[in-house]
Amino acid sequence: MSFSEMLANNINKVVNMYVDNIAKKYNLNKQELLSIWNNIETDKTSVVNTNTTNLPSRELEKCGKPELITLCKEKKLKCTGTKAELVARLVSADNNSTNKDNEKENKKIVNNTVPPVVNKLLSQNKTIAIRRNKYGNYEHPETSLIFNNKTQKVIGKQNDDGTIADLTLEDIDICNQYKFIYDVPNNLDKKANPNVKVDDLDSDVMSEEDEIIDEDDEDIDNEEEEDEEFEEEIEEDEMIDD
User: Fold this and answer.
1) Which of 25, 138, 185, 213 could be disulfide-bonded to 147 (CB atoms 3.0-4.6 Å)?
2) What is the 3-state secondary structure (H, E, C) of 183-240?
3) 140: which strand partners?
4) pTM for this structure?
């Protein structure tokens, strides 16, 4: 025997020992491992990849019953029954798993996709921040409106010199837009309801003016009636003199 033949035999022995250990440890087919080592293609594939969760039914049908039982144990499925039952059980479990994964993906897509309308509503419902300014007043920065800390009503507007100006009709309109409760200043309406809109205040003022005009009309009518009575008395006196 030549040295090359002796070397080849020793290598084959080592390979056989190694393949035998791998086959026993991972429950694999020794002959298929040797075929892979020798670059021999085989039609039958019984190597089970424990990391593969979803196998097609055709691949499962190629597996032996012991391998199918092992897969069922890994998936915590019932391990009894015929080979066909085991294959059907594994396929059904794989389909259910795939459907659940698809549902999770769809939920993620729905949650991540926010319609523009929702964004608009969220932007409109932002928390209104009232901060204490450098003058010690509670101010709404966007409008410069000043709040009474106790009543939580708008009492005026912050001036640059530190003073607080009375509310104007424009300021009250802004209060209505933000739904702020406010105290109506004396120069606008002492009796006005703080929750009444500016348009309502204007209508109240108009109604009071109408009442004043109506009262003036009544006074004018009364004066005209008195003048007519006075003229009639003068005519009667003249007739008596004649």
Assistant:
1) 138
2) CCCCCCCCCCCCCCCHHHHHHHHHHHHHHHHHHHHHHHHHHHHHHHHHHHHHHHHHHH
3) 145
4) 0.30
